[in-house]
Every structure is written in C-alpha cells, then in structure tokens.
Design the sequence.
C-alpha cells in the first residue's frame, strides 16, 4: 500500500513548524499565540523605580559618597543610561524581522461560484448552461537559506451543471503538485541569502559597543565630577581656615590698637582682608552647590536634581601618586588598541562591509535556476454512461461516486505528471551590479583606512594622557614644596611682626600666599587623580577597573510591559 505523500508532508510541516509544547500547555492556545503581539520584557526606566535607594543612604541630612557609590547609583538611576540601554534591545528585535523570507507559509482557500450563461451551441448540452463550482485549496511553501524554494499545493474542486454531456455530474477533481526550485549561481547558498541576518547581528553588536562607549563617557564624567566635588569641599576648608586666621589677626590688631601699640589704619587693613576672604568662602560654597547639582543629576532619576534634599559628602580624598600609576607608553597603547570599543565597532563595521562585498560579488553572476514539478490527479463523482452521444442517448448505467473516488485516484498514482527544466537570465549590460560591487569595495577600503586613523588617534590620546599624568605628578611635588615654603615665610613674617620689624600688610600678604599654595596643592592632587581617570579611559580600562560588566549593565532588573 502506497503512503499518501501529501498527508505525510503536511504532518511534518505542522510538526516541525510548531515548537514542542510544555506539559499541560494548550496546543491551540500556543498555536494562536504566534499571531498576537508578543510580550516584550523591557528594563525598568529609572524614573519608574521606587525612590528609596538614595533615601536609604542619607545620614543626618548628608549623603556620604565614595567614587564607587556615585558610579553604582549612576548605573541604577541615571536617565541617560536608562534610555541608552534600549537601543541594543531594539536592534535585537530587528534581527527577527529578517527571518521573514524563510518562514514556512500555510495557504488555505475556499470559494463558491455559480455562473448561468445562454447557450450558443448544441454542444453545451443545455438551452441555458448553469454551473456551480466549489474550490478548496491547501498549500505549503517555504524558501530555504540555501536558495531553495519548495512547495506543496493540494486542490479539490467540485462542479455540477445541467449539461447533458457531462459524464461526471457532480464531478470532483483533485490535484496535488510538488514544486522545487534551486538557484545555481545568483542567490545560491546561505552566505548570500542570510546576508541581512548576519548584518543585523553585527549591528546589534555595534549597538552594544555604542552603549559601552556611552557608559564609559558617563563613568569618566562621574569620576571627574566626584573629584571636582572633593576639591570644592577641601577648598572650602582652606578658605574657612584662611578667614578664621584673618579674623584672629583682626582681633589681635584691635587689642593692640586699644593698648596703643598699633596704628588704627592697620585694623582697617585687617578688616578689609576679612571681608575679602569671606567673599572667597561664599564663592567656594556656591561653587560646591553647583557641583553637587551636577553629581545629583548623574545619580538621581528625578526631573529636578535639586529635589534631592541632602548635602553630598565625599568620603574619599585625592591620593598621592603611586609607582604603578604610570605605565609605559608603548604598553599603554597596546592595551588601548585591544580594549577601546571604537576599534571593536570598526571591526564589526568592516565585517558588515565584507558581507556586503561577498553578496554583491554574487549578484554579478547570471541567474541560473533548475526546477522540478510533480503532480497527481484524480477524478470522482456520479458517473453516467450513455449508449451514444448527446443528452437523448439512452443511459446504460449510473455509478454513484463522490469525493472518495477522487481521493482514490489521487493517491493511486495512476494519473501523474512531471516537469524538469532550467532557466537562465543573462544581463547583457551589467553596469548596475558592477557599480554596486565597486561601491562596496570602496566602502570596505574606507572602513580599513578609518580603522588605521582611529588607531592613530587612540595612540595620540594615550600619549597625551600619559604626558598629562606625568605633568600632574610633577605639579604635586612642586605644589607641596611651594606650600611648605609659603608656611615658613608666613611664620617668619609673623615673628618679625611680633618683634615690630614688619607691618600687618606683609603678614596678610603671606597669609594669602599660604592659602593659595594650599589650594594649589589640593588642585594638583585632584588633577592628578582626574588624570588617572583620563588615562584609564584612553586605555579602555575604565569599566574593568571599576568592576563594571557591560552584560549585566545592559540587563538590569526588568519588568514585563
């Protein structure tokens, strides 16, 4: 007994195109779910999270922060990061759309028609011909990544009419057609037909690299802002000590004026200096407030960062230079070229250009296809046999039949047909394809040159970062020495003033010099620490050195939307 090939094929199609269902899951519901919008799991936007993280860290109206705290809070709450992490998610969904040409398709069709026409010949078998036709079609088709088109189409038609010449009335006519088409040159093979999928996968990687670059910039910005906040906090302490010292000098001078050992004009000088230093303290205080707002913007999802009603208190101090801070320039450049995301992005871009080039090279070829068809046919219905020709001929016999007879012939393989052939399309002028290939070749060369230019720019950035780090290391030593000398000069001038060998003007001037030298020393330490941040960024090590994993940052706690 022959196996009905069509039924087996349809069973296999449905089985292979339907994922294995979990235990207890409704098959119909699972099948219908693919025609509804899918549930998309998206990261929770920072502004949508409960605002308890910052509040839990506040102590007595102050928010103590380390560099690590600022970075962690920024990754969790920063609005820019919340927006940027959606781009890789969007490009990952775009990949799925390019599988559409390879998705199997099941085609169903049913139709009913009735036509009544006046007779123009005795051969119509009736004065007025009336025909009722019913058609049913089930088909399956799929394009494979190899450049192969396969299809199975099953058709069953039922027709009945008032014509006396019909042997079968009503008549069932069935047909099964298997089709196969294969590209042999153009569009042949997976490499050419999955081009868009592979490009989209690379674009997803490029989107992730772009997110990494944005995150690197934000982490570097957060660290620099933190150390600027440290500087303003330490500078306020210096300005406060300077004003306290000026206030003490004013008090001492007022006492000396009262006992007659100092001229009243010296008190005016001391009062002027107190006012000047108070102004400097006010400016430093407001500068600190502005810096706090910038840090709050990084670590808070609120629309107005000023709504974070807490004073930021940095708990880390700028450190002194260490022997391991300054790597060799050549080694630093090698590390940068291995780790900078710009180089990886250009690598993915170059791979996309190579994919396009391979595809367009294939498009230069003629179109050569080979095809094959195989068909099965069956007929059934109520068969009327007559002794002669025409509606008046005596009826010999009437055999009752129907759809089963049509299926019997259809799968009896008694009435079959096939076709085999090939087709060739040769463009006589191939300028368009040649132009596309030349364009792709040029774009590939552009990416290669851009990669060389980017490597040169990275090497320059690393050298500049190393130079600035060396400069700031030297500035720390110079600033420390200058501060020590300024303090010694102030001590000497104060002793001379106490002995009557100097004036208050010189004492106040030396106090200003000490204050400035202390500020310069703090600035040198902070600038050195910021220079190490810039060097880490130039070498592409800033995320690794801060224990940030890009995969985990891309996939924070999420909620189904």
Sequence:
């Amino acid at each position: 007994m022959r196996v009905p090939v069509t039924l087996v094929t349809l069973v296999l199609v449905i089985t292979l195109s339907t994922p294995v269902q979990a235990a207890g899951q409704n098959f119909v519901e699972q099948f219908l779910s693919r025609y509804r919008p899918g549930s998309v799991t998206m990261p929770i936007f920072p502004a949508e999270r409960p605002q308890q993280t910052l509040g839990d860290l506040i102590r007595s109206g102050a928010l103590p922060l380390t560099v690590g705290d600022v970075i962690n809070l920024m990754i969790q709450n920063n609005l820019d990061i919340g927006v940027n992490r959606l781009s890789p998610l969007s490009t990952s969904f775009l990949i799925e759309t390019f599988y559409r040409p390879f998705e199997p398709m099941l085609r169903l069709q049913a139709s009913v028609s009735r036509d009544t026409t006046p007779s123009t010949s005795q051969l119509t078998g009736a004065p007025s011909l009336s025909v009722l036709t019913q058609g049913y079609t089930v088909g399956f088709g799929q394009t494979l990544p190899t450049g192969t088109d396969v299809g199975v189409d099953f058709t069953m038609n039922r027709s009945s009419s008032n014509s006396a010449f019909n042997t079968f009335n009503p008549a069932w006519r069935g047909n099964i057609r298997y089709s196969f088409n294969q590209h042999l040159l153009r569009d042949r093979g997976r490499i050419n037909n999955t081009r868009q999928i592979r490009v989209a996968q690379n674009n997803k990687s490029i989107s992730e690299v772009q997110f990494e670059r944005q995150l690197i910039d934000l982490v570097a910005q957060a660290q620099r802002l933190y150390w600027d906040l440290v500087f303003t906090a330490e500078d306020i302490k210096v300005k406060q000590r300077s004003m306290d010292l000026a206030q003490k000098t004013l008090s001492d001078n007022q006492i000396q004026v009262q006992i007659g050992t100092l001229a009243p004009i010296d008190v005016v000088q001391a009062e002027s200096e107190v006012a000047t230093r108070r102004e400097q303290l006010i400016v430093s205080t407001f500068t600190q407030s502005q810096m706090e707002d910038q840090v709050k913007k990084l670590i808070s999802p609120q629309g107005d960062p000023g709504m974070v009603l807490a004073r930021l208190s940095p708990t880390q101090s700028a450190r002194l230079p260490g022997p391991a801070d300054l790597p060799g320039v050549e080694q630093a450049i090698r590390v940068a070229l291995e780790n900078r995301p710009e180089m990886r992005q250009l690598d993915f871009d170059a791979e996309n250009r190579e994919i396009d080039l391979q595809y367009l090279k294939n498009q230069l070829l003629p179109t050569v296809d080979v095809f094959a068809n195989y068909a099965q046919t069956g007929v059934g219905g109520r068969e009327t046999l007559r002794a002669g020709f025409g509606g008046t001929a005596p009826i010999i016999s009437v055999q009752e039949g129907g759809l089963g007879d049509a299926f019997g012939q259809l799968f009896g393989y008694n009435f079959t047909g096939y076709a085999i052939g090939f087709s060739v399309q040769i463009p006589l002028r191939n300028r368009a394809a040649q132009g596309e290939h030349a364009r792709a070749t040029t774009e590939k060369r552009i990416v290669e040159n851009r990669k060389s230019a980017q490597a040169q720019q990275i090497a320059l950035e690393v050298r500049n970062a190393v130079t600035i780090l060396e400069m700031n290391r030297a500035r720390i030593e110079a600033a420390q020495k200058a501060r020590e000398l300024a303090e010694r000069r102030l001590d000497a001038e104060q002793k001379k003033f106490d002995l009557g060998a100097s004036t208050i003007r010189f004492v106040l001037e030396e106090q200003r010099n000490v204050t400035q030298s202390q500020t310069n020393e703090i600035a040198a330490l902070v600038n050195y620490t910021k220079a190490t941040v810039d060097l880490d960024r130039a070498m592409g090590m800033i995320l690794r050195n801060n224990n940030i994993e890009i995969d985990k940052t891309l996939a924070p706690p999420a909620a189904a939307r």
Summary: Residues 106-192+367-434 form one domain. Residues 1-8, 10-16, 20-24 have pLDDT under 50 and may be disordered. The two ends are 55 Å apart (CA to CA). DSSP finds 16 helices and eleven strands in the chain.
